[in-house]
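note to self: dont lose this again. the chain is below, predicted strucutre after it. 249 aa total, dont forget to put it in the shared folder this time
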Amino acid sequence: MLVMAHVSDTHFGNDVQDPAARAAAVMDHLLAMNPRPDVLVLTGDVADHGLAAEYAEARAWLDRWPAPAAMCPGNHDVRAAFVDGLGVDARSVVEMAGFRFVMLDSLIDAVAGERVDEGRLGEEQLSWVDARLGESDDPAFVCLHHPPTTIGLELMDPIRLMDGDALAAVIDHHPHVVATLVGHAHTMSATAFAGRPLLMGGGVVSTVTADAEDVDTLWYAAPPSFALHLIDDSAPPPRITTHWRALPT
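---
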């Protein structure tokens, strides 16, 4: 059994919320688990403005985590600052206990100083992930920031991954992909993508509500949330069970 802590959208440096306290509550909860999760997956929007000081704060938070971690940037991140500040590549493959985490970079660079909120992988990166998935038949998770399909939220669907169909075509070729893990949507939710689970980790800094809910669309009063994914590989194919948590700060 592999236990994965899936955290997303910490938004260190956010001007409305106190993201450091909320992220600390999540880390405190994870570190108090016995045994602790085997791996921490962080699916983007680590920083709110992509500033060096925000990544320094995030790095100090991550330094508390003693186990392996895998991370990728989101639309609020700045690629060069993300790489320099966290000491990781924007896309990578992390291997852990017979599982592989293929971390993708769906960030589109700012245009004329304006952040671009939708995501894209592009042909070169799609070829890259196809090659990485083809290197091994070990169970794999494809991880990125942007949901690659619609999820029924008016705020989030227009700024999803724009080449999600192309990613689905790649995943279709690799039956050992267990699930796709994403952030961006700031909501604890699950759907299907490429015939496999698509799991959203929730949001540390805030929650995006359903269109019909009588709550602010960007709900800062909601508790920080994250996911625990339990992967049972006792009999193939691996089976994933997800438990979401919302914590008091």
